[in-house]
Design goal:
heterodimer, A: 339 residues, mainly alpha, two-stranded antiparallel sheet, 13 helices, 2 strands, B: 278 residues, 14 helices, 74% helix, elongated
Chain lengths: 339, 278
């Protein structure tokens, strides 16, 4: 297992270099250089902050040297300071000479997005698994047909539109749920269960919206995986030796059908992180997606690059965890790579 | 060819998808004839009117006719979707073919490139690029195209790898066929069907991405109408004007559904093994 882990970590090196190269290339897209873009779009950018930017990215040096220095800074997770938000550190908190701590922007936003994504993944698994299994067991009959229809609509429905309709229905027409933010006014003065209830109310819609398309995808995946496994010899053997149908399905078939799901969940991470832009900006939730969207609108360059890098790193980490989980769950994979 | 098309249209999924797409295509093409009003004409005496016989889908905050704007918006959605996927497919086929045919270090390099692109959250990447360019319909198409070629690349590569070991290809190679002949008359034509399926499904996701970008104000810019930016107005007026939110979203839903149905239907037709499942 250790050898497998090392091998996987080694493979991440060229990927990280590639990601840094692409991020660096995006910087070069701006007409002129990034300081003129910044000045053109954000009149608030002073000559001083432009000068800082030039120093930060070493714009006076040759391109290759710029890249090398930039890579060095990335490797120490130093993303600099935001232009738009009063020079706040992009990634992690900084303490100044007087001992005042300024919290980092990503540091504050990341836990919120992670919370929403973990809850979404939970919802996806809780709902999609039973749906997929039911569909597979009732193949081509009414339950299967309705679940497939749900899957097609789940794939096609624009999340931001559904979010608008649900906001209108639950917030404007009926006043059931709050329509934006993470907390209500006076959150600090609530009892702990009042706070919990308030947070849940604020999170229901965003979690549902981020989960929806993944939910449809995973349900379809479980269904097709189950159908494939149910036709294999070992299932026939299990039935032939007289095992009860429940045991055949849950012990033998389901376990094998679920294995590829681990990888799929790992692959779903970039979609979930990227999707947080729309959900968070609609519901005004101060997570990574909203932070990124605001940064794009303000052309807040260090924040954009910082989130792009952290988002990619999270994706790589997610894929690594998924692969390790797979190797842990399936001895065939483990032995295959260790031979 | 004729046989394949007939077979495709006898599949209920493909047929229903085809009908939906064809209907939207016709509406978009004949938008100038069908549209009762100029889509950009502002009418201060007709602001936020609910749907009626005069304005089928009501009017927006500037008194523009929503139905007319929807028709012109259809042009944008279809154009962006198809051009973006065209770009992605072209890149994917070339890279996949090179990768699968020549193998070796070229293959390793291209596959690592695919891995790199797949590990950057796509929507972040698209937004980051757009932040440094001015948002316009052409930039959107190019950016979506440049960030969605990875699936086709992997697919074409896999097809090439498996086809190269098939007897008819080996026979042709043994007879002394050149690379170009092997690629263009044997390998490429035989890997085309899964590419078509993937491309049709790709249009669906490109339409969703474009509408999402326009909704966020980073896609097609006002006053040019797109379904996404009509929805942005809808969000603004959600308490007074439900029709501004309802119709564009419904149009996106139906269009994306159409492409998905067509794609899945074609997959059933081309790949009978998987059709047992659906």
């Amino acid at each position: 297992m250790l050898k497998y882990l090392l091998k996987r970590l080694f493979w991440m090196v060229p990927l990280l270099i590639g990601i840094s190269l692409i991020s660096f290339l995006i910087m070069q897209l701006a007409p002129g250089d990034i300081t003129t873009t910044e000045a053109g779009f954000n009149p608030k950018a002073s000559e001083e902050s432009r000068q800082k930017l030039r120093e930060m990215y070493n714009l006076d040096k040759p391109l290759l040297v710029q890249y090398g220095l930039w890579l060095e800074r990335m490797s120490t997770l130093d993303f600099g300071h935001s232009f738009a938000s009063h020079q706040r550190p992009v990634f992690w908190q900084k303490t100044d000479d007087k001992g005042n701590v300024t919290p980092g922007m990503i540091q504050e936003a990341l836990p919120i997005t992670l919370l929403i994504n973990v809850l979404s993944l939970g919802l996806i698994i809780i709902v999609a698994l039973p749906l997929g299994i039911i569909a597979a067991l009732t193949q081509n009959r009414l339950p299967d047909r309705s679940i497939t229809l749900f899957v097609f609509i789940g794939f096609a429905i624009p999340g931001f539109w559904l979010a608008l309709l649900l906001m209108y229905w639950t917030g404007v027409v009926n006043d059931w749920l709050p329509i934006s933010g993470l907390h209500s006014l006076g959150f600090e003065n609530m009892s702990w269960w009042g706070q919990l209830l308030d947070s849940i109310k604020h999170l229901i819609l965003p979690v549902f919206i981020s989960a929806l398309s993944g939910l449809a995808g995973i349900a379809l995946f479980v269904r097709n995986g189950m159908l494939e496994v149910l036709h294999q010899d070992f299932v026939t053997t299990a039935r032939a030796k007289g095992l009860p149908e429940g045991k055949v399905i849950f012990r033998h078939a389901l376990r094998n059908a679920l294995l590829p799901l681990i990888t799929l969940l790992g692959l779903a991470i970039p979609g979930l992180i990227g999707g947080s832009v729309i959900a968070e900006s609609i519901f005004a939730i101060p997570g990574m997606g909203k932070l990124f969207y605001d940064a794009v609108l303000m052309r807040d360059f260090p924040v954009i690059m910082g989130i792009l890098t952290i988002g990619s790193a999270l994706t790589l980490l997610g894929n690594l965890l998924a692969d390790l989980a797979y190797a842990w769950a399936d001895p065939r994979v483990r032995r295959g790579v260790m031979r | 060819m004729k046989h394949t098309i007939l077979k495709a249209l006898s599949n209920p999924l493909a047929l229903s998808g085809f009908i939906i797409i064809a209907a939207i295509l016709l509406l978009a093409m004949f938008a100038p004839i069908i549209a009762p009003y100029d889509p950009d004409a502002i009418d201060v005496k007709a602001i936020l009117l609910p749907p009626s016989g005069v304005h089928l889908m009501g009017t927006d905050g500037l008194g523009r006719d929503v139905f007319s704007r929807m028709l012109y918006g259809a042009r944008i959605s279809l154009l962006v979707g198809i051009v973006a996927v065209g770009i992605a497919t072209a890149i994917g086929v070339v890279l996949g073919a090179v990768s699968g045919y020549y193998r070796g270090w070229v293959d390793v390099f291209i596959m690592r490139m695919v891995d790199v692109m797949l590990s950057i959250p796509t929507f972040f990447l698209i937004l980051a690029v757009i932040a440094f360019l001015t948002p316009s319909i052409w930039n959107i198409m190019i950016v979506i195209g440049l960030t969605s070629w990875m699936g086709v690349t992997r697919l074409v590569r896999a097809e090439f790898l498996s086809l190269r070991n098939r007897e008819f290809v080996m026979a042709s190679e043994t007879l002394g066929a050149r690379d170009a002949r092997l690629i263009f008359s044997h390998l490429l034509p035989n890997s085309l069907t899964p590419v078509i399926v993937t491309s049709v499904l790709g249009v669906a996701s490109a339409v969703l991405i474009e509408s999402g970008l326009s909704f966020l104000g980073l896609g097609v810019q006002a006053p040019q109408a797109s379904w996404g930016n009509i929805l942005t107005d809808g969000k603004e007026y959600i308490q007074f004007a439900w029709w501004l939110s309802l119709f564009p979203g419904l149009a996106i839903l139906i269009t994306v559904l159409g492409y998905n149905l067509l794609g899945e239907g074609l997959r059933d037709v081309f790949d009978p093994r998987s059709s047992k499942k659906l």
